[in-house]
Amino acid sequence: MKQFSHRTIVCPHCGQFVTADIDASNGAQDYYDECSSCCNSIHFKLLHDQVHEKYELFIDADDEQIF
Q1: Which of the four, 13, 18, 30, 40, has the lowest number of CB atoms within 10 Å?
Q2: How far apart, in whole angstroms, are the C-alpha atoms of residue 39 and residue 41?
Q3: What count of other Cβ atoms lies within 10 Å of the Cβ of residue 37?
Q4: pLDDT (tens digit, 9 = 90+) per residue, 45-54?
Q5: Is the pLDDT of residue 67 over 60?
Q6: Residue 18: inside a domain
Q7: Residue 1 CB neighbours (<10 A)
């Protein structure tokens, strides 16, 4: 069963609203996709809570520096 949805997110780089296609059929995922507005990489982290059968999506620019 495919768990596919379209979500509107805010790009962490340019602040524009962009549409992201989320496919939760593979469970928890960690991937990058490009912003359709500014072409910078957006880091997507999809977590699956099997106990409550829900998904959480975290989005960031993944450009933090650690010193």
Answers
A1: 30
A2: 7
A3: 13
A4: 999 888 888 8
A5: no
A6: yes
A7: 4
Number of domains in the chain: 1
Which residue reads 């962490």 in tokens?
12
> What does the block give as tokens for 51?
């106990």
**Above 60 in pLDDT, residue 1?**
no
Residue 44 identity (one-letter amino acid): F
Host domain of residue 46: 4-61
Structure tokens at 34: 């490009």
Q: Is residue 10 part of a domain?
A: yes
Amino acid identity for residue 4 in this structure: F
Residue 39 falls inside a structural domain: yes
Strands 4-10 and 54-60: unpaired
Note whether residue 13 is domain-resident: yes
Backbone φ and ψ of 26, nearest 5°: -100, 15
